[in-house]
Amino acid sequence: MKVLYTADVTAEGARHGHVRSSDGLLDHDLALPPGMGGKGDKTNPEQLFGAGYAACFGGAVEFMAQQAKKPTGTVSVRARVGVGPFDEGNGEGFTLRVELDVTIPEQDQKGAEELAAAAHRVCPYSNATRGNIEVVVRAKGGK
Question: Less crowded by CB within 10 Å, the N or C end of the chain?
């Protein structure tokens, strides 16, 4: 793979610690969410993953729309990232589940669904998670 960009981020102190990027643009304390026994007064890895996935997926929608010469308006992607134990019954390990709600205001419902499906094929986050975790993509047009 030809690398176009490398994000350089360090986490110290695990889920109750701190994350910082090498350029200092990302600099956050972390805390466990209430559903996992924490206060929830700071961000957490699932929120950071959701933010990255949502932004990246939106970029993939815009890229595919540009390729197809279709207008989008301002694309909105809401990511809900759930974390929980594997359902395999062995009691070991945890996994993620992602729901992406994509709104493409300048497309009708069919066009929004087509662009979201195309984006799901090319988005780096979708490619990284495919076959590993459940990802549900729902699209909504604005016309």
Answer: N
| Cα-based distances in Å from 32 to 6, 29, 46, 107 | 27, 11, 10, 39
Give the CA distances from residue 87 to residues 50, 93, 94, in Å, rounded to whole numbers and listed in that order.
22, 10, 9
Q: Using the 8-state DSSP alphabet, how is residue 67 labeled? A: H
Count of other CB atoms within 10 angstroms of residue 53:
23
The pLDDT of residue 88 is 67
Q: How far apart are alpha carbons 93 and 132 in whole angstroms?
A: 13
Name all domains of the chain by residue range, CATH numbers in brackets: 1-43 (2.20.25.10), 45-141 (3.30.300.20)
3-state secondary structure 69-93: CCCCCCCEEEEEEEEEECCCCCCCC
For residues 29 and 11, give the distance between their C-alpha atoms in angstroms, rounded to a whole number.
10
- Put residue 18 in one of left, alpha, beta given phi > 0 → left and psi -120 to 50 → alpha: beta
pTM of the prediction? 0.94
What is the arithmetic mean of pLDDT over 106-127? 98
